[in-house]
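Progress narrative, work stream C.
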Amino acid sequence: QVQLVESGGGLVQPGESLSVSCAASGRTFSIYRMGWYRQAPGKERELVATISNGGTTNYADSVKGRFTISRDNAKNTVALQMNSLKPADTAVYYCNARSIYGDENYWGQGTQVTVSA
């Protein structure tokens, strides 16, 4: 089992930057593809970015060029650097871990990111 804890959310103004982090425990971190998803009130959870255990990244079109996902296997952490934030980025951001072996899938409790003037 993997436990995920997000941190770093908060309130920022449009155009500002924010970084959210996810700390993992319980299993070997390096065997998981890590990802960030987000969910706004009344909307479905959507993919933001993923990073494989080998470092391959994937981004939603809405965040390409603005967000960067990274991981540190030694520290069992994954981060999402968010630049040029827009009000549309306002959501609860969730950390996700998917095993490269089988179909194990884990979620954190989420951290709120609010972008408002």
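Work stream C, second folded protein:
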Amino acid sequence: QVQLVESGGGVVQAGGSLRLSCAASGRTFSTYAMAWFRQAPGNERDFVASIPGSGNFVHYADSLKGRFTISRDNAENTLYLQMNSLQPADTAVYYCAAGSDATNKRVYGYNYWGQGTQVTVSS
């Protein structure tokens, strides 16, 4: 059982950067695969990046590789998403999620979700 709370969203100019955080409660955080998803109005909730409990391998949506970096600090029970070179198309609500398999890029593969944090990129 985990509770997830995202933070770090806001408004940024195109080309800027943001770092999102996801704080997790519970003593078994290090055993969970973690992921970031995002959802823009009128769109499905899409995969952004994922990382296993060990943090030894990561996955990214093909279109985001090179701009976004996922990481975790198991000692602090925190997941991060560093977002660089942001574009208006990145505007969305960003969600963190916990599950059992970091190779799963579908929303159905994750059991626990945060409330989301809004990221708005202006042109």
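The mean pLDDT is 96. No further action is required on this item.
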